[in-house]
Specification:
This protein has 605 residues and is mainly alpha-helical. The protein has two domains: 381 residues, Hydantoin permease (Orthogonal Bundle); 56 residues, no CATH class. It has 23 helices and four strands. It has a two-stranded antiparallel ribbon with strand order 1-4. The protein has a two-stranded antiparallel ribbon with strand order 2-3. Helix 5 packs parallel to helix 11. It starts with a helix and ends with a helix.
């Protein structure tokens, strides 16, 4: 076992022991502790836990990778996710917390006075959460595949066992305090290499300053040099966008509005005692999130520069060791198209040319003993010869930059912490939706607390297995899969929550059909263009057939508008909600005495 693997194994095992110990120490013994951590989490700790819950594998592993490949267009993730959290914290969370229901389906069921609405909301919550969690499990598999040199699927299986233990045992109480530890691990793991590389390349110990500064060796600004490198290789300038304005807007809006409908984030505002504590938690969470999000563009720029300069036009026999290490995972691959023995990194999809016939396993190429892609015919065209999975950029960056082995191991532990923290929160949402919202609130109101807790744990166990399957068979790279989940949340929950808080006229009929319309439209569009099947005579997956030129990542914005339209029209054509419901909507928007709010919340759990 090489030094990198030893450091990685040591740090990962140490952090896992810490997570499991915390889960045992804080294990849930009641439904209140399992669902909302007993409502006694301090604001600062809840802010850390929320940040860890929020910053998934997509934020830690994949976001900087997308920015490094897409440049300006990658800002959609920064703007969408950051703006979305602000929208959730300021516009929705205080009202939902004041309403006193600790799950979105619970809010929908009571606000829209309908068991049917509750069931539809449960289906939407499960659909969104499973889509999201498969991206997290995929991230776990990527980390393990490189640093422990195991198959990606085996890596997903290891992650399943770990998250099953502390999510099923500890519930929200165990997950909350585990996530506090995971935030500390992931932010340290993200910032340490960023600071090292910023000093190495620009002389500044602050990555955000280094990103806007100059390289020590040339005196050229970071972005100017990166623009030049990209253009020399046939790519568009790093600071120039390629997406159409409408597509960029729709993706950003879907990410932003989907945030406001994510059930695993909303439930965080119920783990504190009062509304004022929820607001303080939101502030701390935004502060902790901003540390990583303001650093990600710098990490992306440094990684992109290092990638190009370390392998392009380099003889394969002299390629750096990091390249050989990552080739073993099949997440990096090279095929010598022109026979010159050098790696040619150019604009365009890798391995396209004169009909190369590659041996593939799923979406990844099969490598021979020498590390090259196995092909069945000769290639002579001088096009892109390099395949790089963008999800490896953050994980590989310390190796590319030649940082110490312990830093490389630390980054692996951080990636796992980010993926597992969010996976645990999502699995809890799924188990809560099943045990609390579906069984107890809809079909068996007399269910005892003991049986409800048992059902919740069974639901979490089943969810782990299903999530693991989708983690092994994902429909895209990590951040892309997560973007699908945000689109689904935007098209289902956001309109219903907004109208439930601010419209007394919105009734159950509008809410039910609005959610169904948004879910079906967005879900079918994503499945068609990402997974692929033919409908209405269109060729599956063809970009030229995108509706209004909008990609699957952004279609949730249109689904949201459809949800609003259907809900408003049907609501206007059907009877108004009961008077007591309208009074409830008025009441949750008015100030309330702290003791009264606490008593109402206690009664709801």
């Amino acid at each position: 076992m090489d030094p990198i693997q030893l450091w990685t194994l040591g740090i990962v095992v140490a952090t896992f022991i810490l997570y499991i110990a915390i889960a045992i120490w804080s294990r849930a013994s009641s439904t209140s502790e399992f669902f909302v951590a007993g409502k006694g989490v301090p604001s600062l700790a809840n802010g850390m836990a929320t940040a860890a819950d929020w910053m998934s594998a997509a934020s830690f592993i994949s976001m900087a990778g997308i920015i490094s490949f897409d440049g300006f267009d990658g800002s959609r993730y920064l703007m969408g996710w950051t703006g979305g959290y602000v929208l959730l914290a300021l516009l929705l969370a205080p009202y939902l917390r004041k309403f006193g229901k600790f799950t979105v389906p619970d809010f929908v069921g009571d606000r829209y006075y309908s068991s049917t609405a509750r069931v539809v909301a449960v289906i939407c919550a499960i659909f969104v959460s499973f889509t999201y969690v498969c991206g997290q499990m995929q991230g776990v598999g990527i980390v393990f595949s490189r640093f422990l040199e195991v198959d990606v699927d085996l890596g997903v299986g290891i992650g399943m066992l770990i998250v099953f233990f502390y999510a099923v045992l500890g519930g929200m109480k165990g997950i909350t305090y585990t996530q506090v530890a995971q935030y500390c691990v992931l932010i340290f793991a993200f910032m340490v290499p960023a600071i090292f590389i910023s000093i190495q390349m620009t002389g500044s110990p602050i990555p955000q300053v280094g990103f806007g500064g100059e390289f020590k060796d040339t005196g050229m600004s970071v972005l100017e040099r990166l623009d030049g490198l990209n253009q020399e290789l046939g790519f568009s300038a790093y600071t120039t966008g390629k997406f159409s304005t409408i597509n960029l807007f729709c993706i950003t809006a879907a990410l932003m509005l989907g945030t406001a409908g994510l059930p695993h984030v909303i439930v965080r505002f119920y783990t504190v005692r009062r509304v004022s504590n929820a607001r303080t938690s939101a502030f701390w969470a935004l502060f902790f999130i901003a540390i990583l999000y303001t650093t990600a563009p710098a990490v992306a720029a440094f990684a992109r520069t290092n990638l190009i300069e370390s392998v392009n036009e380099v003889e394969y026999t002299s390629v750096p060791q990091w390249f050989k290490n990552w080739e073993k995972t099949k997440l990096v691959a090279w095929v010598d198209k022109n026979g010159d023995g050098k790696i040619q990194y150019r604009s365009g999809a890798p391995f396209e040319g004169k009909e190369p016939v590659l041996q593939m396993e799923g979406d990844n190429p099969v490598l021979g003993e020498s590390g090259q892609v196995l092909v069945t015919n000769a290639l002579t065209d001088n096009e892109n010869e390099l395949f790089v999975n963008r999800d490896i950029m953050v994980l590989a960056n310390p190796e590319i930059a030649g940082l110490p082995d312990w830093v490389i191991g630390l980054v692996a532990a951080g990636g796992l912490a980010a993926a597992l923290s969010t996976a645990a929160g999502l699995l809890l949402v799924i188990s809560t939706a099943f045990a609390h919202d579906l069984v107890k609130k809809t079909f068996k109101p007399d269910l005892s607390e003991k049986h409800e807790l048992a059902l919740a744990r069974i639901g979490a166990g089943v969810a782990v297995v299903v999530a693991g399957y989708f983690g092994m068979n994902p429909p895209g790279f990590v951040a892309q899969v997560v973007a699908f989940a945000f689109g689904l949340a935007a098209s289902t929950f956001f309109p219903i929550i907004i109208m439930g808080i601010f419209s007394k006229r919105m009734n159950k009929h509008g809410a039910i059909w609005g959610m169904i319309a948004g879910l079906l439209f967005t879900g079918i569009y994503i499945i068609h263009f990402r997974i692929g099947f033919k409908w209405f005579g269109m060729e599956a997956g063809a970009e030229e057939n995108w509706l209004f030129g909008i990609s699957p990542e952004g279609i949730g914005t249109i689904g949201m508008l459809l949800n609003f339209a259907v809900a408003l029209v049907i609501s206007a054509l059907t009877p108004a909600p009961p008077r007591e419901v309208q009074e409830l909507v008025e009441r949750i928007r008015l100030p309330e005495e702290p003791e009264e709010a606490a008593e109402a919340f206690d009664a709801s759990v």
